[in-house]
Design brief:
homodimer; alpha+beta; BirA Bifunctional Protein, domain 2; 3 domains; YbaK protein; 16 helices; Rossmann fold; nine-stranded mixed β-sheet
């Protein structure tokens, strides 16, 4: 490819309405252009990157045994009524009336359409398991489309759906897809984590998200240095504490006149924050009063607390309720000597403390040297009810690290939700009609492009991982069409790289070197080779890796070695 | 690929609602499944074919220097208002309101979107010429979707748009695209013609359609045996006649009491139909009475007659008007001795006749031995005003043949219609703002699949041209998993073909031979190889080409030669 025959159109100005660095750089590199809110044209440059991602996704899905097909983007209302999602999907579902007033939607996902296909096609257990996928345009009518293709309304998605006669086989395929996803993101050259997500509202039995790590990511995730364990911060767990030490201090009532927070109390007493205990008063789902205890340096995790038996869907207690049960106003609360009986739920770390500090249930006072069993009855319940923090010991022996991530893939065990609702059955080995169980597996193909930039960029522009780069090598010609030897050397290098399977581009546009190099850096080409009269005279090419700060003068053999060509 | 790991689902029943053979066979082969009216899922089998067509289209567009990008399918009303097509496009434009009540359409074509992209990207003549293309989903809200993917509402189209500073350069690119299209349809292995179409309502300056020849085609086309000349029957021209012979007969008035048609008159007189002349009375655009003359074996071509100077948008004359001008009722009309002056427009073939037959303008009588100059004044105008017929001499010296075609591609010189309406200018060499001229070039990628079947099928099913076949070779295993030698021989053949770049599939489903062969024939695989215990014992494979009626027993070397592997 020669840039003089391509359409490259970069700009120096940073677009005013772009917030994310990937959005800014994609606009500046001319990879995308906005047609309307949340609708982007993929330019020739952008499309090259998108297609490289698409190809890797396709190759690995095929390798994993999934079978590609293509469903219509426009799907009839009747189908979405069968699962109740015509109403339940909400405002993101773009609803359409055709010229005959029949109602349709633009597919934001395709569980209904694939289950309709499956119930036409599959009638016997012999045809299962099967995993159908497509890489196709999707539309979600985001109420506030922004961040460029990171949250566009029209986007490219890989969606796969598997069908199984039993749950064990679904779990097998789910693991197979997780392995395929791991290969995909590894091949793309991205730093990522497969994150355990609380399946929550998805309606499935198990799910995992794949996140590209980037400081600008919307999601906080925790991962371990000891294995590939990773989870949304909300769902992450750390290793439990060691055994509780024996008591060493006496119980004491100390004055803390204005010290209401653990931080203030610890500072006043000159003790570590981790020795203090925070008492959080909540009203459990059954209306009972619960005191949840976490260490002063920890925070209550709402999802975990809600899962403790007898807590359920709780709410924070009001001041009157607190006064009624503990006889004290917030700031000096504690589990010792409540006015009315309260249930005490202690985080595992709190249950493992000795000689700790709690509020005295008396304004202006805390208690120090508190010990379970001696001063206080053992807690009514001990559970993991806190968020993990940076440095926690992980269950695999490693350390917990916190990071931010961009969700680019997810795998779900859907179960029988859709097959049941749509009356899809197959005959099993005994000739009995059974409802197949399903998995679904998505990858945001166009979003990956933006996420890769969030993870890989510098002041000069994008730094593509090689497998996603529009071209792997840029051959920059200084003063093309001046000295034929220069043009010939550049052309010959291009052909040699092409023959070796290296995707190279020749910049023969005749720009001044500074402008040319700025373009090549902005669009993130991993390897830059400069061909000049002066260099040729010395028998060298000027080589520079995108991440390097200096160029090197290399002869042809050295250069080819640097570019991975034998 | 092994069929046991693929999803193949054929049926014997011919679907009730399918009329075209391609629609029937695509359903029976399980290539497509209907989701709703005009909306089809492409099954794994169908998608393999679609992708092969897509790949050839892409490769040839790239080779021709066009640059791929991708425009959104959903496009804002404002853009379509700029060209007036929001209203003018008609009912096929699927209009959509989003959650904020903003209006959009699903792109049925993309002149507006590409011109919007171009006016953001292109500002100088230096960036021109450029030809952008995409291969992307389109939607046309057909009032009566039918014929499967032949006239689906959602379909896959390759659409290209070129921009030029002057008309000569547009013509150059137009010819370049025609050459690319010729390569595409040639590579696909289809019989096709590039047909001159009357550009008519398209609003451009020149256009050509590419038709796949098939008896079921909607369009009648004429082509020459002497060159690649082809045209819609309406637009086709034949070579002009030779010189007019000298008169040999006397003018005679003959009785034709009930003979009103040329056929009846020729039969009565025992002369060739081509010696009779039909007089068609019309009222020209300017209100004057015109007698159009064509040979008895020819038919008036309305478009050509309308283009004769002084005729214009004409209508057929009424009986009263005919009586007023010719003094006779229809059936015996002729150009000799009208009651009032009439303009005579003779087809070229009529002007070249001697001793011909016309109506006498007297009920029950015709005139024979009529000659121009002697009996009649020379015609007021001589022009090509007839439809071509099978066997006509073509302008290239060949013969005209008639056929039916399915339109699968078109190339248009659009001119400045869209660029003008959307205010798109670039600076020319002198720094002056000029409106670029445009070409547009479409290919119905999904329609090609159906058209290929219309052209290539038999009682047993589809007969794919090799480049479009889902697989080129099917290796059919008789009784798989019974004799390991059979499985090994099949697997080894599969691997050898794969290594040689042949796209082969192994049918290891374990069907009975009859059912297996029926499937392989139905889905149109060009080459079938049977691997059986008996064959291996004899050292042979049973080979059969899809179009052949007999199988051959070949040894491995012969087989590989048949399959094009050295």
């Amino acid at each position: 490819m020669r840039l003089s025959r391509f359409h490259l159109h970069t700009t120096k100005e940073t677009p005013a309405d772009a917030e994310l660095v990937s959005h800014k750089l994609m606009l500046r590199a001319g990879m995308i252009r906005k047609l309307a809110a949340g609708l982007y044209t993929w330019s020739p440059l952008g499309l090259r990157v998108l297609r490289k991602v698409e190809r890797i996704v396709r190759e690995e899905m095929d390798r994993a045994g999934a079978i590609e097909l293509q469903l219509p983007t426009i799907q009839p209302r009747e189908l979405w009524e069968e699962t109740g999602r015509w109403e339940k999907f909400g405002g993101q579902l773009l609803k359409i009336r055709d010229r005959k007033e029949a109602e349709y939607c633009f597919s934001p996902t395709a569980e209904e359409a694939i289950t309709d296909y499956a119930r036409q096609e599959l009638s016997s257990y012999k045809q299962l398991p099967v995993n159908f996928y497509q890489i196709h345009t999707k539309f979600r009518d985001e109420i506030r489309p922004r961040f460029g293709v990171m949250r566009a309304r029209e986007f490219l998605m890989k969606d796969a759906y598997s069908f199984h006669v039993n749950d064990a086989d679904l779990v097998r395929e789910y693991e197979n897809m997780k392995a395929a996803y791991t290969r995909i993101f590894t091949r793309l050259g991205l730093q990522f984590r497969a994150v355990q997500a609380d399946s929550g509202a998805i309606g499935g039995d198990a799910s995992q998200e794949f996140h590209v790590l980037a400081d600008s990511g919307e999601d906080a995730i925790a991962f371990s240095t000891g294995s590939d364990y990773a989870a949304n911060v909300e769902a992450a767990v750390a290793a439990g504490p060691g055994p509780r030490p024996a008591p060493a201090e006496e119980l004491r009532r100390v004055q803390t006149p204005t010290q209401k927070t653990c931080e203030e109390v610890a500072a006043l007493l000159g003790i570590p924050l981790s020795r203090t205990v925070k008492s959080v008063a909540v009203i459990a789902g059954d209306g009972s009063f619960v005191l949840a205890l976490v260490r002063g340096d920890h925070a209550v995790n709402e999802i975990k607390l809600g899962k403790v038996p007898g807590v359920g869907e709780y709410r924070m207690a009001g001041e009157a309720e607190i006064l009624e049960h503990l006889g004290c106003e917030p700031g000096f609360l504690g589990p010792l000597g409540p006015r009315k009986p309260v249930r005490v739920v202690a985080d595992r770390e709190v249950a493992a403390l000795a000689d700790f500090v709690i509020g005295a249930n008396e304004p202006g006072f805390h208690l120090t040297g508190v010990n379970w069993g001696r001063d206080l009855p053992e807690p009514d319940a001990v559970a993991d009810i806190r968020n993990v923090v940076e440095g926690d010991r992980a269950i695999d022996g490693g350390r917990i690290r916190l990071a931010r991530g961009i969700e680019v893939g997810h795998v779900f065990q859907l179960g029988r939700k859709y097959s049941q609702a749509m009356g899809f059955t197959v005959l099993d080995e005994n000739g009995k009609a059974v409802v197949p169980t399903m998995g679904c597996y998505g990858i945001g193909v166009s979003r990956i492009v933006a996420a890769a930039i969030e993870q890989n960029h510098d002041q000069a522009g994008i730094i593509w991982p090689e497998p996603m780069a529009p071209w792997t090598v840029a051959i920059c010609v200084i003063n093309p069409k001046k000295d034929p030897k220069v043009d010939e050397a550049a052309e010959s290098l291009l052909q040699e790289l092409k023959t070796a399977g290296v995707d190279a581009v020749l910049d023969d546009r005749g720009l001044r070197p500074g402008a040319m190099f700025a373009d090549i850096e902005l669009i993130g080409i991993p390897h830059r080779v400069v061909v000049s009269e002066r260099g040729l005279a010395a028998g060298t090419f000027e080589y520079r890796a995108r991440r390097a700060s200096e160029s090197e003068a290399l002869d042809r053999a050295q250069l080819l070695q640097h570019l991975g060509v034998a």
